[in-house]
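Side project, low priority. Logging it here so it doesn't get lost.
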Amino acid sequence: MSRILIVDDAKFMRMTLSNILIKAGHEVIGEGENGEQGIRLFRELKPDIVTMDITMPVLSGLEAVKQITTEFSDALVIMCSAMGQQKMVVEAIEAGAKDFIVKPFDENRVIEAVSRVLD
């Protein structure tokens, strides 16, 4: 399937997302804890897709998406947000994210988002 990079400051969220994606046949090729790591890992690993949390320390997911999509115009980024962050989700889409998934993660929604972004 696809090679995916997961960027989220919460280890539990990375683990949950990783389990969903692996179960669906995808390969998780890396994990980052903040936007800065996400950008560095994107450059190194060249994933097919990145899942990016919005709210993180050091550099937010929003800033990371802007940098990644500026540098790599074909980057496929799926934003992850907690309920009630609709305004930030809109900003993320405007910054270049292709889709978003809401926490807590619904397995079917995660798989749908990945499939939609890949098509």
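Brief comment: The chain has a mean pLDDT of 94.
Revisit when time allows.
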